[in-house]
């Protein structure tokens, strides 16, 4: 059986290189036959695409897509540099 | 209320707009002219650097009531269309820096902006050097060439305030939060060394989505990582020379 580290690396590579996602900052953890994705993206579409690409790269694993969708908030307070 | 001589710089990087984001970022820029004198965009404007995405970005930034200066990021290079994307942005009125500089008139003040994408290599003591295989030498030489161009541009520019706009980071501090193993791909100390030599008031960069906002070069120049995921807001505003503060 392939070591989980190599499977995780392959999933990560797929999410970075696949034309649908090109996402570099997603953490991949594998425990037994469970695959966990964690990180932040700017929209729900990207989260779904990442789940799809990860699933295709490791279809034998049960996927938990825990990626968070974070919308950019209102511009906050100014910082004064002097 | 800000004092008239304040120079207010709005900054953001890594907006990573895709084709399904049309109109979404523009909404967040409404009223920016009341908050800032200029908007600086620190690269990674697109997701995959396609022409379609470049057009979305150009439309989002088109016709803003304040000047917009941008550099591209590694994502904008992915489809080998960086020159076309830069052209699209310029047609929309955005000043795109490519290892050169520009001067923006902000009220009665001249603001010089120098920069470009930047590149990696790592940080003093833990970095690549121009030695060995051609591929490694090319990698380091690329960063060196960029740093040298910025130094020259900073020395030549005539302005009261000088800001450096980059995608890659010049220092480690603003990378905190990223795994240290990938620091060499996130920036290079050669960029900081060049800016410290020539002098500047502020360095803005993006690229490190999990990094930290604030840091400083060894020479004491303030550095801000304005990657959107780091800021968690549409843009940050930095005020230069705010004598007396608010
Ligand atoms: Fe980015
Ligand atoms: Fe980047």
TrEMBL record, chain A:
Residue intervals of the BON domain: 7-70
Which InterPro entries does this entry report, sorted A to Z?
BON_dom
Pfam families hit by this protein:
BON
Q: Which domain of life is it from?
A: Bacteria
Q: What is this protein called?
A: BON domain-containing protein
* Lineage, top ranks: Bacteria, Bacillati, Actinomycetota, Actinomycetes, Streptosporangiales
UniProtKB/TrEMBL annotation, chain B:
Keywords recorded for this protein, A-Z: Hydrolase, Metal-binding
Entry keyword Plastid: no
GO cellular component terms, alphabetically, are:
membrane
- Regions that span the bilayer: none
Q: What is an example of a GO molecular function annotated in this UniProt entry?
A: metal ion binding
Q: Name one GO biological process term.
A: lipid A biosynthetic process
Q: Which InterPro entries match?
A: Calcineurin-like_PHP, Metallo-depent_PP-like, Metallophosphoesterase_sf, UCP008292
Name of the protein: Metallophosphoesterase
């Amino acid at each position: 059986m392939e070591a989980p580290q190599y499977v995780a690396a392959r999933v990560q590579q797929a999410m970075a290189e696949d034309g649908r996602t090109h996402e570099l900052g997603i953490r991949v953890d594998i425990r037994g036959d469970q695959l966990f994705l964690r990180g932040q993206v700017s929209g729900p579409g990207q989260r779904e695409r990442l789940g799809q690409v990860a699933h295709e790269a490791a279809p034998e694993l049960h996927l938990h897509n825990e990626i968070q969708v974070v919308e950019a908030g209102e511009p906050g307070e100014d910082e004064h540099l002097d | 209320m800000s004092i008239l001589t304040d120079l207010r710089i709005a900054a953001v990087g890594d907006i990573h707009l895709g084709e399904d984001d049309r109109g979404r970022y523009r909404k967040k820029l409404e009223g920016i002219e009341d908050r800032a004198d200029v908007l600086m965009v620190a690269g990674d404007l697109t997701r995959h650097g396609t022409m379609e995405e470049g057009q979305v970005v150009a439309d989002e930034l088109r016709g803003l009531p304040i000047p917009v200066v941008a550099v591209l990021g590694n994502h904008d290079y992915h489809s080998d269309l960086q020159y076309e994307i830069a052209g699209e942005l310029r047609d929309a009125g955005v000043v795109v820096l490519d290892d050169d500089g520009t001067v923006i008139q902000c009220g009665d003040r001249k603001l010089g902006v120098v920069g470009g994408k930047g590149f990696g290599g790592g940080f003093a003591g833990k970095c690549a050097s121009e030695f060995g295989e051609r591929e490694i030498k090319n990698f380091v030489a690329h960063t060196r060439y960029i740093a040298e161009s910025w130094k020259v541009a900073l020395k030549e520019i005539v302005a009261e305030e000088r800001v450096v706009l980059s995608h890659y980071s010049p220092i480690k501090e603003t990378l905190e939060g990223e795994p240290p193993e990938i620091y060499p791909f996130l920036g290079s100390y050669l960029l900081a060394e060049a800016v410290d030599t020539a002098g500047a008031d502020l360095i803005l960069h993006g690229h490190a989505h999990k990094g930290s906002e604030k840091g400083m070069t060894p020479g004491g120049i303030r550095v801000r990582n304005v990657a959107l995921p780091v800021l968690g807001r549409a843009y940050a505003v930095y005020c230069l020379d705010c004598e007396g503060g608010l």
